Amino acid sequence: MPEDASKEEHVEHQQRTLRFASFREVRHTIIRIIGRRLRKDAPVSWQGCDFDFTGVVFDGGDLSDAHVTGGRISFREAQFTNSRMDFTGATFSGGTVDFTDVRDLSVMPQGLREATVKAAPEAKVLLPEEWLSSSPAD
User: Which Pfam families is this protein grouped with (predicted)?
Assistant: First the structure.
């Protein structure tokens, strides 16, 4: 914000900032709920369901300990910023999880490398070649 900005510009900037923060909290809550429903001990399980996150920008989220048993989860053309998306302890025992064509190949979500290394043969985990050949960003 420029030093010579008017009071109206400051108010507008503050409103945009609050609106962004509110939407960000909603996005993180949605991911947190999905993550809880994908855990083995979930009271209501969404394992085996399809999720389409195509083109989504992830600036945080918790899918740690998610257990993917089937279905298809697409992260195609998604963007993971600041490595704040957490897949630590996730397991892939079936279905397809597709990370191909992500928009920023420099950021691999936290815990994803370990989860894919432990993936069961029945699971299909599609990763960008750059993530397979580089060191983890987490």
Answer: Pentapeptide_3
